[in-house]
């Protein structure tokens, strides 16, 4: 029997009534091949420090150029990979790519921390710190090259385990950020004992902020709360200079968003170091 090609499979899936469910299955089924055949790649989005205007950290964001479906957003395929129990493969791949990139950048005198997004299963994994340590050792890199971003809801599913992992990662020099802060339906009480370095306020909190005083009050209070607890504060999704100025006045430490820089390929970033305020060391 001849193995069905991806094209045949896609056609069969699309004949089905429930197209969206078939699309999901198709995406899940093509993920292993995507990992093996370089269909995935990373883009890097710089963060601007509002204290000195430069950039000391970028976030790695995954992209998938699917041969049949075109560009698939991580917002679509990451939850599917989680659902299918394949997210550990994606996370390991992303970590590996970032460390290889860091070896190249450091050889070029580019010293910048790169943040990798993790999912809930990664954080529940008891040997996450050991795995990260081994990966760093393989590339002879210090923990300072790396940050890990975890969402609030991810933390809350097993706060004790997550806290244990965070403590160990920070001992290695890896920074830990709480991503999508404010969207996780969790109580604020957990923040008190959380040993993370940074809080990233979700861009949902920018909605209506230019017009509504109440929206501004929520943002100011969130920034001040996080800072009082000792976290560095980054606001995500900043798209204008007006927002940048407002957030600087509110005390935010960093902004990330299209106003400062879009997510870009490594080469593109290397060509734009001066504008981005990324120092190059001899
Ligand atoms: P996130 O970690 O909160 O990343 C921020 C998202 O906001 C990114 O979407 C980024 O492209 C987008 N963004 C940046 N600036 C702006 C802006 O000015 N305006 C607007 N509207 N959006 C902006 P992206 O790249 O589509 O990623 C979506 C989510 O997928 C990420 O949210 C993250 O949770 C997840 N993700 C991405 N890469 C990975 C990965 O390697 N592993 C895992 N587990 N999750 C990933
Ligand atoms: Mg993130
Ligand atoms: Mg986020
Ligand atoms: Mg987000």
From TrEMBL:
It comes from the Bacteria. Residues 24-277 form the EAL domain. This is Diguanylate cyclase/phosphodiesterase. The lineage of its organism: Bacteria, Pseudomonadati, Pseudomonadota, Gammaproteobacteria, Alteromonadales. The chain holds residues 213 to 494 of 494 of the full protein. One of its GO terms (molecular function) is cyclic-guanylate-specific phosphodiesterase activity.
């Amino acid at each position: 029997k001849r193995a069905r090609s991806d094209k045949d499979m896609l056609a069969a899936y699309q004949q089905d009534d429930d197209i969206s469910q078939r699309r999901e299955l198709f995406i899940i089924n093509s993920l292993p091949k995507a990992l093996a055949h370089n269909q995935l790649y990373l883009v890097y989005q710089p963060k601007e420090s509002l204290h000195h205007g430069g950039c000391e950290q970028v976030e790695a964001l995954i992209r998938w150029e699917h041969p049949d479906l075109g560009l698939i957003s991580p917002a679509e395929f990451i939850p599917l990979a989680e659902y299918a129990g394949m997210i550990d493969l994606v996370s390991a791949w992303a970590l590996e790519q970032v460390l290889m990139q860091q070896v190249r950048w450091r050889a070029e005198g580019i010293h910048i921390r790169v943040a990798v997004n993790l999912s809930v299963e990664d954080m529940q994994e008891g040997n996450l710190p050991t795995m990260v340590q081994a990966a760093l050792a393989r590339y002879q890199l210090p923990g300072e090259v790396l940050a890990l971003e975890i969402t609030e809801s991810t933390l809350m599913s097993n706060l004790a385990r997550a806290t244990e992992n965070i403590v160990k990662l920070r001992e290695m020099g890896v920074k830990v950020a709480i991503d999508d802060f404010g969207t996780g339906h969790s109580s604020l009480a957990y923040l008190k004992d959380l040993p993370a370095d940074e809080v990233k306020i979700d861009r949902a909190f920018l909605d209506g902020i230019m017009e509504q005083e109440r929206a501004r009050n929520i943002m100011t209070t969130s920034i001040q709360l996080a800072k009082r607890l000792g976290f560095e504060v980054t606001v995500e999704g900043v798209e204008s200079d007006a927002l940048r100025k407002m957030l600087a006045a509110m005390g935010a430490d960093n902004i990330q968003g299209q106003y400062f820089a879009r997510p870009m390929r490594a080469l593109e970033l290397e060509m734009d170091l001066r504008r981005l305020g990324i120092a190059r060391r001899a």
